[in-house]
Amino acid sequence: MEKKAIDWSNLGFSYMETEKRFVSNYKDGKWDAGLLTDNANVVINECAGVLQYAQTCFEGLKAYTTEDGHIVMFRPDLNAKRMADSAKRLMMPAFPEERFLEAVHKVVEANKAFVPPYGSGATLYIRPYMFGSNPVIGVKPADEYQFRVFTTPVGPYFKGGAKPITIRVCDYDRAAPHGTGHVKAGLNYAMSLYAIMEAHSQGYDENMYLDAATRTKVEETGGANFIFITKDQKLVTPKSSTILPSITRRSLMYVAEHYLGMEVEEREVYFDEVKEFAECGLCGTAAVISPVGKVVDHGKEICFPSGMDEMGPVTKKLYDTLTGIQMGHIEAPEGWIHRV
Ligand code: PLP
Ligand code: COI
């Protein structure tokens, strides 16, 4: 199979239309068989539930080319499960988890020519999503839904790749106690746009959100969870019921403990403690692990000892082990790697 003529090493995190996408519709209480289509456009009624009341959720995962030339996906079963959880919270019918797995396999298979080659630094991002598709004008769940999966080749989420970024403590909240912060609802991202544009205009790469109830604890950013490394090399990561349960983070906690012999603590992290950590990173499918060099709290700077030039040494070990597992040169725990 011929790869597309794409400058893989210079891709950013942006959309490029690929050849095929999967579509299935839910009507009269059931999902249809679904199919692969060439048509990248969605046509829905002007009053569709998603357009009026944002009834939509999504997922994000990646396909990788391994060193020996296979195409694999990383833990897609956890995305299937999380999407079912998101759907439930938003009063949408879950797309069956087995069928989710089949659909992502099919779409990656059909777009093999767009899976970036091993060593290029790029990957194929997979975006499953669903939305209320029939007219809804009173505030209630739709009766009809569409589930889709498309793919797009991507490079690093932050320009500069592994260069440490600078973030600010954000005055806006991301998620309310007992709200929707723990699911991947489109609405969580719509409401973060004002805050991210404001951060960018002030020269910051991202926002650090604090807990909305007390504004004393670290939550996450708009699109990734936090990991911190203590001076004695423990991995510390915030425990909260209002952050997205990151699959990358769950994997890193396992890797830290079982591959690197580190102690791991998932616990509440007070903002006041942040200045004591040796290293800080953002983790997620898109972010992989993006090192944070500096956190600015209303003009007060916290500079991590790892500096602004490169990833801290422990973060680097975590990064190398995780990406080694994803790219197939480090043996993966049972069930983590799904070959396409
Ligand atoms: N937190 C938020 C708000 C996200 O959007 C994402 C991305 O999916 C993550 C964390 C990281 O989750 P994962 O590692 O499953 O991609
Ligand atoms: C992902 O990491 O897959 C996400 O969905 C985060 C998004 C901000 C791109």
From TrEMBL:
Pathway: Amino-acid biosynthesis; L-leucine biosynthesis; L-leucine from 3-methyl-2-oxobutanoate: step 4/4; Amino-acid biosynthesis; L-valine biosynthesis; L-valine from pyruvate: step 4/4; Amino-acid biosynthesis; L-isoleucine biosynthesis; L-isoleucine from 2-oxobutanoate: step 4/4
Documented EC number(s): 2.6.1.42
SUPFAM superfamilies cross-referenced by the UniProt entry: D-aminoacid aminotransferase-like PLP-dependent enzymes
Keywords: Aminotransferase, Pyridoxal phosphate, Transferase
Reaction it catalyzes: L-leucine + 2-oxoglutarate = 4-methyl-2-oxopentanoate + L-glutamate; L-valine + 2-oxoglutarate = 3-methyl-2-oxobutanoate + L-glutamate; L-isoleucine + 2-oxoglutarate = (S)-3-methyl-2-oxopentanoate + L-glutamate
InterPro entries named in the record: Aminotrans_IV, Aminotransferase-like, B_amino_transII, BCAT-like_C, BCAT-like_N, BCAT_family
Keyword Protease: no
Cofactor(s) required, per the database record: pyridoxal 5'-phosphate
A single GO molecular function term of this UniProt record: branched-chain-amino-acid transaminase activity
Modified residues (N6-(pyridoxal phosphate)lysine): 184
GO biological processes: isoleucine biosynthetic process; L-leucine biosynthetic process; L-valine biosynthetic process
Entry's family note: Belongs to the class-IV pyridoxal-phosphate-dependent aminotransferase family.
Name used for this protein in its record: branched-chain-amino-acid transaminase
Organism (species): Dorea phocaeensis
Lineage summary: Bacteria, Bacillati, Bacillota, Clostridia, Lachnospirales
